[in-house]
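Sequence only, no structure available. Ideas?
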Amino acid sequence: MLTNTDHRTTGLKTTSLVVSAGADAVYLLFMVLHLDSLKGYMVTVCGWLVSAVILFNLIGIETQQHQQAQANTNQHSIYTESFYACIIAAGLYTLSAILLAVYMLSAKAKTFTSADRRLIECTSIVFRVNIFVIFLLGGAAIYSSIEGWSLIDALYFTDYTLLTIGIGNLTPQTHLGRSLLFPYATSGIVSLGLVITSMTSFISRIRDMKLRHIIQTARQGFSSAAVLENEPLEIRFPKWTEIMELHTIKSDFYRRRRWAELGLSLIAWFLLWFLSAAIFRQSETQDDWTYFVALYFTFTSLTTIGYGDYYPQSNFGRVFFVFWSLLALPILTNLVSVMGDVFHTWLKYISSHVWRHLFYKCRTREPHEHECTRHSYITSNVPSGLGCTEHTQVKSRMVSIQFQLQLAQEIQSLLSAMTDESLEHKEKICCTWSRIIPLLHAGEYNASCSSERTPFVPPKSENEMMTKFMDPLKEPADRNAEISWMLTLLVEKLCLDLRNELSEIM
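Reply:
I predicted one. Tokens follow.
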């Protein structure tokens, strides 16, 4: 169809572009300056909706002109690439405005912390996506001028170039265009890599945030139990059962989340593959594409193989290819990330299983199991079962020094374990915790008899202490991370004991 390109239509297109660009600029400005993001979101939503309304009006005008032209000439006419691009742009504006409005309302209804909101809003990924879009559109404008292509054809070229699909039906024919390809493709692919890295990091941080909220709920249960047992919350350390429960919560969460993400990613990928094949089959009927040929083309494009023996030639096919390939980017990124995580977990499980069965068969068994270890420390010189008046002041001082020395030795042992990667020193975490827990709770049995002992510093609230000790970001993502958590608890215990001793001297 020959579209109407009068001044009114051109002015509406320009107005839509300016309004949407202004809405994006306001959105980025509020995020960079850390202003009230909800107000910025409101302006952005309104701007996107206005742009969508303008584009939908243009679509209506073009459709009406198309019908009139067919009625007057009795000839079959087709829509241009710009018409289909206008439809997709209007749909994206509307969808983005709806999603942003839903988040804005949920942010008002729910009590997100400032850190959680910054994590969800993810300024870095927004900037990197905008930079990548600038590479796409800017490169399309440059190559359109150099090679004499239409803007949509140039965008189609830059899309399959930066996404490394390399279909190859459009290639630079001028010396300048080929020369510019070296810096343009290199910088564009680097920008794409930064977007993929941000997406992977964003998914991981959202997962950790959800785990943090789950553990906070469990922590509230620990606090309620401590209140019922009349425990002194200002010096409360995690118990053995609480440590094990946190481990169970974390492992169950990651196991369920891992398989759920894998299933959803596979479903999304197959839907994208099969549905897009049906769409391309319909759009390329003039070239006699069968559904199998469309499946073949979409598979080689999704996997960036890009043989180039089949490629879209219709106006709608090229426009849809640009939108579809960019939509496939986050889906494929998430699928690869989840599959890598599942494979890594499976490989780690197999290697640990083999190591347990082979390594322990080649060496004598040492009495380091947590039942024996826990008993040896509980019945040692730790003053957890000592009475208040049974020993002299000298004996009490000597026992206190012995306990502090034991804490320091355990800290030194954990520091050595973090730097020693040999298999002989990779003790089971449960055995290490069985030594740590009695040390953390030493002296609590006679706490009621020594009520005159008060901390040298003002006591922390229960929420601050438990947040410091049980924050999931300090929970073990690996062995060294968990040892770091143990070290934190031991240092806190040592400091607490020294403060109590100093308060007695004062």
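DSSP finds 15 helices and no strands in the chain.
Hope that gets you unstuck.
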